[in-house]
Amino acid sequence: xxxxxxxxxxxxxxxxxxxxxxxxxxxxxxxxxxxxxxxxxxxxxxxxxxxxxxxxxxxxxxxxxxxxxxxxxxxxxxxxxxxxxxxxxxxxxxxxxxxxxxxxxxxxxxxxxxxxxxxxxxxxxxxxxxxxxxxxxxxxxxxxxxxxxxxxxxxxxxxxxxxxxxxxxxxxxxxxxxxxxxxxxxxxxxxxxxxxxxxxxxxxxxxxxxxxxxxxxxxxxxxxxxxxxxxxxxxxxxxxxxxxxxxxxxxxxxxxxxxxxxxxxxxxxxxxxxxxxxxxxxxxxxxxxxxxxxxxxxxxxxxxxxxxxxxxxxxxxxxxxxxxxxxxxxxxxxxxxx
Length: 338
Known about the structure:
Layout: E1 36-41, H1 47-53, H2 56-60, E2 65-70, H3 74-82, E3 88-92, H4 93-100, E4 108-117, E5 121-125, E6 140-143, H5 148-159, E7 167-170, H6 173-181, E8 187-191, H7 194-199, E9 203-207, H8 208-213, E10 219-225, H9 226-231, H10 233-252, H11 254-265, H12 269-275, E11 279-280, H13 284-287, H14 297-311, H15 321-325, H16 331-336
Parallel strand pairs: 1-2, 1-3, 6-7, 6-8
Antiparallel strand pairs: 3-10, 4-10, 4-11, 5-8, 5-9
Protein backbone atom coordinates (compact mmCIF):
# COMPACT_ATOMS: atom_id res chain seq x y z
CA UNK A 1 0.00 0.00 0.00
CA UNK A 2 1.31 3.42 -0.96
CA UNK A 3 0.70 6.07 1.66
CA UNK A 4 -1.83 8.68 0.69
CA UNK A 5 -1.17 12.25 1.68
CA UNK A 6 -1.75 15.71 0.42
CA UNK A 7 -3.58 18.95 0.96
CA UNK A 8 -5.96 21.11 -0.99
CA UNK A 9 -6.06 24.83 -1.47
CA UNK A 10 -8.84 25.57 1.02
CA UNK A 11 -9.01 29.25 0.10
CA UNK A 12 -9.66 28.62 -3.59
CA UNK A 13 -12.97 29.91 -4.92
CA UNK A 14 -12.31 30.02 -8.66
CA UNK A 15 -14.56 28.55 -11.30
CA UNK A 16 -13.48 24.95 -12.06
CA UNK A 17 -12.59 25.81 -15.65
CA UNK A 18 -10.01 28.30 -14.38
CA UNK A 19 -8.24 25.89 -12.04
CA UNK A 20 -4.87 24.59 -13.16
CA UNK A 21 -4.87 21.41 -11.08
CA UNK A 22 -1.74 22.28 -9.08
CA UNK A 23 -2.52 19.84 -6.25
CA UNK A 24 0.11 17.08 -6.40
CA UNK A 25 -0.73 13.45 -6.91
CA UNK A 26 -0.90 11.70 -3.50
CA UNK A 27 1.34 8.93 -4.87
CA UNK A 28 4.06 8.77 -7.52
CA UNK A 29 2.47 9.76 -10.87
CA UNK A 30 2.54 7.14 -13.62
CA UNK A 31 3.19 8.66 -17.07
CA UNK A 32 3.17 5.18 -18.65
CA UNK A 33 -0.64 5.02 -18.41
CA UNK A 34 -2.13 6.18 -21.71
CA UNK A 35 -5.71 4.98 -21.26
CA UNK A 36 -8.60 6.90 -22.81
CA UNK A 37 -11.41 7.05 -20.26
CA UNK A 38 -14.92 8.51 -20.51
CA UNK A 39 -15.95 9.27 -16.94
CA UNK A 40 -19.42 10.43 -15.94
CA UNK A 41 -20.04 12.43 -12.78
CA UNK A 42 -23.09 13.64 -10.91
CA UNK A 43 -23.71 16.64 -8.67
CA UNK A 44 -23.46 14.54 -5.52
CA UNK A 45 -21.32 15.93 -2.65
CA UNK A 46 -18.77 13.17 -2.21
CA UNK A 47 -15.14 12.34 -2.91
CA UNK A 48 -15.66 11.88 -6.64
CA UNK A 49 -16.29 15.63 -6.95
CA UNK A 50 -13.09 16.29 -5.02
CA UNK A 51 -11.15 14.03 -7.39
CA UNK A 52 -12.63 15.85 -10.37
CA UNK A 53 -12.09 19.32 -8.95
CA UNK A 54 -8.48 18.77 -7.92
CA UNK A 55 -7.76 17.00 -11.23
CA UNK A 56 -6.14 14.13 -9.37
CA UNK A 57 -6.61 11.68 -12.23
CA UNK A 58 -5.04 14.08 -14.70
CA UNK A 59 -2.12 14.78 -12.37
CA UNK A 60 -1.53 11.15 -11.39
CA UNK A 61 -1.82 9.91 -14.99
CA UNK A 62 -0.52 12.84 -17.08
CA UNK A 63 -0.60 10.92 -20.37
CA UNK A 64 -4.06 9.45 -19.97
CA UNK A 65 -6.90 10.94 -22.02
CA UNK A 66 -9.69 11.62 -19.53
CA UNK A 67 -13.05 13.05 -20.55
CA UNK A 68 -15.57 14.07 -17.89
CA UNK A 69 -19.29 14.23 -18.69
CA UNK A 70 -22.14 15.25 -16.41
CA UNK A 71 -25.16 13.05 -15.70
CA UNK A 72 -28.24 14.46 -13.97
CA UNK A 73 -29.59 11.23 -12.50
CA UNK A 74 -29.26 7.48 -12.35
CA UNK A 75 -31.67 7.27 -15.27
CA UNK A 76 -29.17 9.17 -17.41
CA UNK A 77 -26.42 6.77 -16.36
CA UNK A 78 -28.56 3.76 -17.27
CA UNK A 79 -29.01 5.21 -20.75
CA UNK A 80 -25.29 5.95 -21.04
CA UNK A 81 -24.30 2.40 -20.13
CA UNK A 82 -27.03 1.14 -22.45
CA UNK A 83 -25.58 3.08 -25.39
CA UNK A 84 -21.94 2.28 -24.51
CA UNK A 85 -21.16 6.00 -24.28
CA UNK A 86 -19.40 5.88 -20.89
CA UNK A 87 -16.65 3.74 -19.34
CA UNK A 88 -16.97 4.68 -15.66
CA UNK A 89 -19.77 6.52 -13.89
CA UNK A 90 -20.97 7.72 -10.53
CA UNK A 91 -24.34 6.04 -10.04
CA UNK A 92 -26.71 5.02 -7.29
CA UNK A 93 -26.92 1.40 -6.23
CA UNK A 94 -30.43 0.83 -7.57
CA UNK A 95 -29.79 2.19 -11.10
CA UNK A 96 -26.56 0.18 -11.19
CA UNK A 97 -28.51 -2.98 -10.42
CA UNK A 98 -31.11 -1.98 -12.99
CA UNK A 99 -28.40 -1.64 -15.64
CA UNK A 100 -27.11 -5.13 -14.87
CA UNK A 101 -30.59 -6.69 -14.98
CA UNK A 102 -32.89 -7.56 -17.92
CA UNK A 103 -33.74 -6.09 -20.31
CA UNK A 104 -30.47 -4.08 -20.40
CA UNK A 105 -28.24 -6.78 -18.88
CA UNK A 106 -25.17 -4.57 -19.20
CA UNK A 107 -21.88 -6.17 -18.18
CA UNK A 108 -20.79 -3.73 -15.47
CA UNK A 109 -18.83 -3.95 -12.23
CA UNK A 110 -18.92 -1.84 -9.09
CA UNK A 111 -15.42 -0.56 -8.33
CA UNK A 112 -15.95 1.98 -5.52
CA UNK A 113 -18.45 3.14 -2.91
CA UNK A 114 -18.38 6.93 -2.69
CA UNK A 115 -20.88 7.19 0.14
CA UNK A 116 -23.53 5.40 2.13
CA UNK A 117 -26.78 7.36 1.92
CA UNK A 118 -28.63 8.30 5.09
CA UNK A 119 -30.63 11.47 5.73
CA UNK A 120 -29.04 13.03 2.64
CA UNK A 121 -31.97 11.65 0.65
CA UNK A 122 -35.31 12.32 2.28
CA UNK A 123 -39.04 12.54 1.71
CA UNK A 124 -40.13 16.16 2.15
CA UNK A 125 -43.81 17.08 2.56
CA UNK A 126 -45.26 20.54 2.03
CA UNK A 127 -48.44 20.42 4.15
CA UNK A 128 -47.56 20.94 7.85
CA UNK A 129 -50.42 18.61 8.79
CA UNK A 130 -48.69 15.71 7.02
CA UNK A 131 -46.68 13.94 9.71
CA UNK A 132 -46.42 10.36 8.43
CA UNK A 133 -46.23 8.56 5.12
CA UNK A 134 -49.81 7.38 5.65
CA UNK A 135 -50.93 11.02 5.64
CA UNK A 136 -49.88 11.20 1.97
CA UNK A 137 -52.44 8.61 0.85
CA UNK A 138 -54.10 9.89 -2.32
CA UNK A 139 -51.45 12.60 -2.74
CA UNK A 140 -48.75 13.16 -5.38
CA UNK A 141 -45.10 12.37 -4.64
CA UNK A 142 -42.33 13.25 -7.10
CA UNK A 143 -39.03 11.39 -7.41
CA UNK A 144 -36.47 10.84 -10.18
CA UNK A 145 -37.32 7.35 -11.47
CA UNK A 146 -34.49 4.84 -11.47
CA UNK A 147 -32.64 6.64 -8.67
CA UNK A 148 -31.73 5.44 -5.18
CA UNK A 149 -34.39 7.84 -3.88
CA UNK A 150 -36.98 6.05 -6.04
CA UNK A 151 -35.92 2.71 -4.56
CA UNK A 152 -36.14 4.10 -1.02
CA UNK A 153 -39.58 5.57 -1.69
CA UNK A 154 -40.96 2.34 -3.16
CA UNK A 155 -39.57 0.41 -0.21
CA UNK A 156 -41.26 2.73 2.28
CA UNK A 157 -44.57 2.65 0.40
CA UNK A 158 -44.51 -1.13 0.25
CA UNK A 159 -43.76 -1.47 3.95
CA UNK A 160 -46.62 0.92 4.79
CA UNK A 161 -49.08 -0.89 2.51
CA UNK A 162 -49.43 2.20 0.35
CA UNK A 163 -48.27 0.80 -2.99
CA UNK A 164 -50.77 2.11 -5.52
CA UNK A 165 -52.37 4.37 -2.91
CA UNK A 166 -50.32 7.45 -3.81
CA UNK A 167 -49.51 9.00 -7.17
CA UNK A 168 -45.78 8.67 -7.81
CA UNK A 169 -44.50 10.78 -10.72
CA UNK A 170 -41.13 10.92 -12.43
CA UNK A 171 -39.42 14.32 -12.28
CA UNK A 172 -35.77 15.39 -12.42
CA UNK A 173 -34.55 17.31 -9.38
CA UNK A 174 -34.77 20.74 -11.03
CA UNK A 175 -38.27 19.94 -12.27
CA UNK A 176 -39.23 18.84 -8.75
CA UNK A 177 -38.32 22.27 -7.39
CA UNK A 178 -40.39 23.98 -10.08
CA UNK A 179 -43.38 21.68 -9.47
CA UNK A 180 -43.07 22.29 -5.73
CA UNK A 181 -43.13 26.04 -6.21
CA UNK A 182 -46.24 25.73 -8.41
CA UNK A 183 -48.00 23.53 -5.82
CA UNK A 184 -48.25 20.67 -8.33
CA UNK A 185 -46.87 18.07 -5.93
CA UNK A 186 -47.48 17.30 -2.27
CA UNK A 187 -44.12 15.73 -1.46
CA UNK A 188 -40.83 14.65 -3.02
CA UNK A 189 -38.01 12.24 -2.18
CA UNK A 190 -34.85 14.07 -3.22
CA UNK A 191 -31.23 14.81 -2.43
CA UNK A 192 -29.12 17.95 -2.14
CA UNK A 193 -29.13 20.69 -3.18
CA UNK A 194 -32.86 20.39 -3.96
CA UNK A 195 -33.48 18.86 -0.53
CA UNK A 196 -32.47 22.02 1.33
CA UNK A 197 -34.56 24.16 -1.02
CA UNK A 198 -37.68 22.09 -0.31
CA UNK A 199 -37.08 22.09 3.44
CA UNK A 200 -37.36 25.89 3.41
CA UNK A 201 -41.13 25.51 2.96
CA UNK A 202 -41.59 21.86 3.91
CA UNK A 203 -40.43 19.26 6.41
CA UNK A 204 -38.91 15.76 6.32
CA UNK A 205 -41.08 12.68 6.84
CA UNK A 206 -38.65 9.83 6.13
CA UNK A 207 -35.08 9.37 4.92
CA UNK A 208 -33.04 6.72 3.16
CA UNK A 209 -31.68 5.82 6.59
CA UNK A 210 -35.20 4.67 7.46
CA UNK A 211 -35.36 2.61 4.27
CA UNK A 212 -32.01 1.04 5.14
CA UNK A 213 -33.57 -0.04 8.43
CA UNK A 214 -36.22 -1.83 6.38
CA UNK A 215 -33.50 -3.85 4.65
CA UNK A 216 -32.98 -1.55 1.67
CA UNK A 217 -29.61 0.22 2.06
CA UNK A 218 -28.57 2.57 -0.73
CA UNK A 219 -25.17 3.82 -1.85
CA UNK A 220 -23.67 6.24 -4.30
CA UNK A 221 -21.12 4.07 -6.02
CA UNK A 222 -18.94 4.07 -9.09
CA UNK A 223 -19.36 1.42 -11.73
CA UNK A 224 -17.58 0.66 -14.97
CA UNK A 225 -17.98 -1.63 -17.91
CA UNK A 226 -16.31 -4.98 -17.37
CA UNK A 227 -14.45 -4.67 -20.67
CA UNK A 228 -12.89 -1.33 -19.69
CA UNK A 229 -12.01 -2.49 -16.18
CA UNK A 230 -10.35 -5.72 -17.28
CA UNK A 231 -8.49 -4.04 -20.15
CA UNK A 232 -7.01 -1.25 -17.98
CA UNK A 233 -5.72 -2.64 -14.65
CA UNK A 234 -2.98 -0.01 -14.25
CA UNK A 235 -5.44 2.81 -14.84
CA UNK A 236 -7.90 1.28 -12.37
CA UNK A 237 -5.20 0.93 -9.72
CA UNK A 238 -4.25 4.61 -9.96
CA UNK A 239 -7.90 5.64 -10.23
CA UNK A 240 -8.60 3.74 -6.99
CA UNK A 241 -5.78 5.53 -5.20
CA UNK A 242 -7.17 8.87 -6.37
CA UNK A 243 -10.66 7.97 -5.14
CA UNK A 244 -9.18 6.91 -1.80
CA UNK A 245 -7.60 10.35 -1.53
CA UNK A 246 -10.95 11.94 -2.34
CA UNK A 247 -12.68 10.08 0.47
CA UNK A 248 -9.76 10.81 2.82
CA UNK A 249 -10.22 14.52 2.20
CA UNK A 250 -13.97 14.18 2.79
CA UNK A 251 -13.33 12.63 6.20
CA UNK A 252 -10.16 14.38 7.37
CA UNK A 253 -10.36 17.79 5.66
CA UNK A 254 -14.09 18.57 5.42
CA UNK A 255 -13.51 22.31 5.05
CA UNK A 256 -11.20 21.75 2.10
CA UNK A 257 -13.61 19.21 0.64
CA UNK A 258 -16.37 21.81 0.87
CA UNK A 259 -14.28 24.20 -1.21
CA UNK A 260 -13.91 21.65 -4.02
CA UNK A 261 -17.56 20.66 -3.88
CA UNK A 262 -18.63 24.29 -3.79
CA UNK A 263 -16.57 25.09 -6.88
CA UNK A 264 -18.00 22.14 -8.78
CA UNK A 265 -21.60 22.88 -7.78
CA UNK A 266 -21.35 26.66 -8.07
CA UNK A 267 -22.12 27.34 -4.41
CA UNK A 268 -20.19 28.72 -1.43
CA UNK A 269 -18.07 26.45 0.78
CA UNK A 270 -20.48 27.17 3.62
CA UNK A 271 -23.40 25.95 1.54
CA UNK A 272 -21.40 22.94 0.42
CA UNK A 273 -20.59 21.99 4.02
CA UNK A 274 -24.28 21.68 4.80
CA UNK A 275 -24.68 19.18 1.97
CA UNK A 276 -22.31 16.69 3.60
CA UNK A 277 -24.67 15.84 6.44
CA UNK A 278 -26.50 12.57 6.00
CA UNK A 279 -23.70 10.75 4.19
CA UNK A 280 -20.96 8.39 5.34
CA UNK A 281 -17.76 8.27 3.30
CA UNK A 282 -16.04 4.87 3.66
CA UNK A 283 -12.27 4.79 3.81
CA UNK A 284 -10.15 2.57 1.58
CA UNK A 285 -9.54 0.25 4.52
CA UNK A 286 -13.27 0.05 5.27
CA UNK A 287 -14.10 -0.70 1.64
CA UNK A 288 -11.64 -3.58 1.67
CA UNK A 289 -13.38 -5.02 4.75
CA UNK A 290 -16.15 -7.57 5.15
CA UNK A 291 -19.00 -5.06 4.99
CA UNK A 292 -18.13 -4.03 1.46
CA UNK A 293 -15.68 -5.52 -1.06
CA UNK A 294 -13.99 -7.97 1.31
CA UNK A 295 -17.16 -9.93 2.04
CA UNK A 296 -20.61 -10.56 0.62
CA UNK A 297 -22.29 -7.44 2.02
CA UNK A 298 -22.42 -5.62 -1.31
CA UNK A 299 -23.50 -8.59 -3.40
CA UNK A 300 -26.25 -9.35 -0.88
CA UNK A 301 -27.47 -5.74 -1.06
CA UNK A 302 -27.43 -5.82 -4.87
CA UNK A 303 -29.40 -9.09 -4.97
CA UNK A 304 -31.96 -7.66 -2.55
CA UNK A 305 -32.26 -4.52 -4.65
CA UNK A 306 -32.83 -6.61 -7.77
CA UNK A 307 -35.56 -8.65 -6.10
CA UNK A 308 -37.35 -5.49 -5.08
CA UNK A 309 -37.01 -3.89 -8.52
CA UNK A 310 -38.44 -7.04 -10.07
CA UNK A 311 -41.40 -6.99 -7.69
CA UNK A 312 -42.02 -3.36 -8.61
CA UNK A 313 -41.70 -4.19 -12.34
CA UNK A 314 -38.76 -1.83 -12.64
CA UNK A 315 -36.84 -4.64 -14.36
CA UNK A 316 -38.18 -7.38 -16.63
CA UNK A 317 -36.72 -10.23 -14.60
CA UNK A 318 -33.90 -11.14 -12.26
CA UNK A 319 -30.51 -11.83 -13.78
CA UNK A 320 -28.71 -15.04 -12.86
CA UNK A 321 -27.60 -14.99 -9.21
CA UNK A 322 -23.93 -14.84 -10.16
CA UNK A 323 -24.49 -11.49 -11.92
CA UNK A 324 -25.18 -9.79 -8.59
CA UNK A 325 -22.59 -11.89 -6.77
CA UNK A 326 -19.91 -10.78 -9.22
CA UNK A 327 -20.90 -7.10 -9.50
CA UNK A 328 -18.44 -5.98 -6.79
CA UNK A 329 -14.97 -5.88 -8.38
CA UNK A 330 -12.41 -5.92 -5.60
CA UNK A 331 -9.10 -6.45 -7.43
CA UNK A 332 -7.81 -2.86 -7.38
CA UNK A 333 -9.06 -2.14 -3.87
CA UNK A 334 -7.43 -5.30 -2.53
CA UNK A 335 -4.18 -4.41 -4.30
CA UNK A 336 -3.80 -0.94 -2.81
CA UNK A 337 -5.57 -1.28 0.56
CA UNK A 338 -3.46 -1.44 3.75
